[in-house]
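Appendix B. Raw example, untouched.
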Amino acid sequence: CGVCNGPGKVYACGCTEIPDGKCDCDSNVLDCAGVCGGSAVEDNCLVCDADATNDCTQDCLGIWGGEAIIDACGVCNGPGAVLECGCFTIPEGFCDCNENSLDCNGDCGGTAELDDCGVCNGPGKVYACGCTEIPDGKCDCDGNILDACDLCGGEIQNPEDCSLSNDIEIPMDYMDIFAYPNPFNSQIHLVMDCYQCSPGQVEILSVLGSRIESFTLNKPKTASRHFFQWNADKTHSGIYFVKVSTPTETMMKKITLLK
């Protein structure tokens, strides 16, 4: 050891002791397993071994060696797809997870709708008065009744007064057509007031001009009122025209048949 009168190589490393903090003469240190010069290390989970493949990791909560994971809905340590729609509840205002709504029948995703009359899945305004038929005992949608001359809403009470007398002054160019009810379901009343109707003709025409029905104006009086009734039981719904032809004038009125 080069020491004068020394004891020689009597120390652990011959001429010296093992260095402080070391475990052998090669300056190795103890690993976590207490092995001098060993390769075992302690990971973040305080596990000591030499296998790096089993080192612990942090879970989604940041805990080393923890077991929390991201569930199917992307939530750390969440319950998973356990709600009505899996990861979420049914959206407000809808009846299912596909954002369908209740129809007027209460069916989710149904197609039933309120018609113009407020009826669920109803036919709409197809009746004589739109949403209703003409009230019983009435002749139109306004609640009028027939007078003695079958004029809807008229005020004549004596049937003998149904023809205009010759002493009533009527303009020579006067003509008018009354049709009630209009729209109608199967029967319509037609009233013609004119200065000189006879001889003349009343025709019911389709929108294409085809004649459906005709009546003759043959009252002898110069100024008169004529009454007709058209039964359209065998006629299809649609728009029709009443055409009145007299020696002095021709007049047309649109009527609507709804069944």
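End of appendix B.
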